[in-house]
Input
Amino acid sequence: MKVTPLIGDDGSIQLEIDQKVDDVVGNVTIDSNAQPIIGHREATSFVNVSDGQMIVLGGLQQAKHSTNRNKLGLLYEIPIISQLLGGRNHEEDRTELLLFVRPHIIPPGESTKDTAKSIDALTNKDQVKQYLQNPSKQQKESLIKQLTQ
Output
């Protein structure tokens, strides 16, 4: 799962959520070796929410149907007798991936040590720190001054 958040001036949060699920759906034999067949499912969602609001995403569903027959030695080879005496097993398995997300905006004063370390690693850390101190005050620097730095 990959989540890309965008925070608006009004405190709304826009999320791009990419979900990917890989699982084994069967087997194939290559050179007398059983190899798995991998099934791939993915979905991308765009959601706009307020701070602290819960989102529930669903839709990555999978259904498996299988039928097995029990063999009774040589009687399995006789068509009518194998139908009467052989046991059968039908299985259905359905799964659905549900994703619960509750985004929360952390105010600049409540940042963690990891957050501060990540900001210090940025090339424009001074601009980011200035914005975090007062986001309503936009930095008014000339384009020429920005290019010469």
